[in-house]
Amino acid sequence: MARLNKKLLAVAMPIALATLLSPSAQAVCSSEPMLGGICWMATDFCPTGYIQANGTALAVQANEALYSLLSTTYGGDSKDFKVPDLRGRSVVGLGSYYNGLVLSGQRRGAATTRMTYDNLPQHYHRIDPATFVLTGTLSANKTAPTSNSPVGRYPAISSVSAMQSYGVGIKPVAMAGGIIAGDLSGMTGETSSAGNGASIDINAPRLGLTACIAIKGYYPPRP
C-alpha cells in the first residue's frame, strides 16, 4: 500500500507542477483560454480566439456564450453587446473598499484634476499696509453748505467765514494733488488673483500593452 501511494505521488506531482506553470495559470494569452478571460500581449495584435479589449460591439446571435457571461455590462443592447474597453485604463478589483464600492463595468477615476478651495491647506497671504498706494479725486464746492450730512455731497466753504478752499468759479472742482496723512482702521479687502487654473496630471507611470479578451474557449464553470 505504501509503495502504491509513493507511485501515485510520483505521478501526481509533475502533473500538478505542470498545471501551476501552464500558460492558463498565468496572465498570458493561452492557446486554451477561458471564455471572457483577459490577457496582455506585447505585440500590436491578439492571438487567434481573442480580440482586443477596446469596447468592440459583438452580435449577440453570433456570440451567445460570451454574451451569457458579459451581458450588457460594458455597453450594448438586445442585439449586440460590447467587450470591456481597456484603452488607456488600468483595472481594479470589484467589491467594497475603504473609499467606496466598485461595480462590474463601472468607469472610475480621471486622468487630470483641478484643485479647488477645499483642497488647499489653511494659509494666509501677508498684506503690508506700509506699501499701500491710494489714488482718487476729492471734489469740493465753493458755496456755503446747506447740510451737515456728508452723504452724496462735497466739502464746502464755512458758513461763517469768507475763506474758501478754492476760488475757481466752477463747482465741483478737483483738489490739487498732495498727501493726506491719517490712520486706517477696520479696513477689509483682498489680494489680486493669481494662477491660471490649469489641470493637474495625476496619471501614474504606465506602459502600453495590447489588452485581449477571449471570445472562443472553455466556458468558465461557476463555483
From TrEMBL:
Taxonomic superkingdom: Bacteria
Keywords, comma-separated and alphabetical: Signal
Cleaved signal peptide residues: 1-27
Residue ranges of every copy of the Phage tail collar domain listed in the record: 36-90
Keyword NADP among UniProt keywords: no
Keyword Cytoplasm attached: no
Name of a matching Pfam family: Collar
Name under which the protein is recorded: Microcystin-dependent protein
The species this protein was found in: Pseudomonas cuatrocienegasensis
Origin organism lineage: Bacteria, Pseudomonadati, Pseudomonadota, Gammaproteobacteria, Pseudomonadales
